[in-house]
Specification:
single chain, 9 helices, 0% strand, disordered N terminus
Length: 181
Amino acid sequence: MKYIYVPLLFLSVLFAGLSCQRAEKSYPSAMQRAISLLSTRPDSALYYLSQLDSQMADEPEETRVYHRLLTLAAEDKLYVPHTSDSLIREIVRYYEGYGDSDKLMMAYYYQGSVWRDMNDAPRAIDCYHRALEAGRHTRCSDLLISIYSQLGTLLAYQGVYDESLQATRTALAFAGNIVIP
């Protein structure tokens, strides 16, 4: 009978340790809700993110930076024009040193969006290329579609039609495995 208690004690310590580890890496529930709504309901995502503004000071740095990136993303999806690059520069700088390639790809994408809004197409195109390089092993197909679509549009405005067409074809391929000759 006492042999049963040793494995039970071991398992309970193991589960307690794992649950603490998960709690450290998880985001506040309102932030998780915003993440789930960002693609389909950016207005609701922005609402949930704004509810967290006052408590962000108590969160770890990664959570604070990700909160700012998500807020910027929600505003971009709501067509709020970006007028300054100071916030996104800080976010990109953080993720360049953090090591999360998916978030770095997202940060570069939104840096490109900021430059696009500020009418600096060459810088925007460079950021979109950096996003593709950062996410070369990613499975974030929605973001890849957005990157290639923005590239296609900006390259067409720059008169680089062959590259624009290739970027647009790639976006369509990611969107539905469509191959356009």
